[in-house]
Amino acid sequence: MEARDTHVLELRGETLGTITNQSSSEEIFQNMTLRPILKTQNDLFIQVFINYAIKQKNVFFSLTPEKKMQYIENVIQRDIKFRNSLKGMIIALFTLDEYAEYIRISSNLNKRMMNMLIERLKSQMQLIEQ
After folding, report:
1. How many C-beta atoms lie closer than 10 Å to residue 98's C-beta?
2. Angle formed by the axes of helices 106-123 and 80-91, to 10°?
3. pLDDT per residue over 96-115, tens digit each?
4. For residues 89 and 117, is the Cβ–Cβ distance under 8 A?
5. What's the pLDDT at 1?
6. What is this structure's pTM?
7. Is the dihedral of CA 35, 69, 52, 77 positive or negative?
8. Cα–Cα nearest to 53, from 35, 40, 67, 39
9. What is the rounded distance in angstroms from the CA atom of residue 82 to the CA atom of residue 65?
10. Which domain of life does this protein belong to (predicted)?
11. Rounded to whole angstroms, how far apart are CA atoms 79 and 102?
C-alpha cells in the first residue's frame, strides 16, 4: 500500500495554505490534503456539475447569476447522492493515514470539504456556463 500512497501524494502535489503551530488538526488536514485534492480534481468537479445540471433539465443554465450561486449551494447540500459522489471523488485521493484521520473527525471534515467545493464551483461560474 505504500506505493499507492506515494503515487497519490505525487499526483496531488504540495500543501496549499499556511500551517502554523496554532493550526487545528482540521486546518492542517484541510491545507495538506483537501486543498491539493480539490485543485487536482477541479476539472472533473466542473464536468460532473455540468453533467448534473444537464440531467436536471438544464434549469441551472437559465437562472440569474444569483440564483445559480444558490443552486450550486442547494444541490450540494441537499442532493445526498450527488454530494456522496463528490465526496467519493475526494476521499479516493486520500492516503491510508489520511483516511484514518478522516474517519476520526469525518463530520467536521465533510462540512469543510463541501463548503470548499461549493466556493470553488461558485468562483468558476464562467467555466460552468460554457
Report:
1. 20
2. 100
3. 999 999 999 999 999 999 99
4. no
5. 62
6. 0.90
7. positive
8. 67
9. 22
10. Bacteria
11. 22
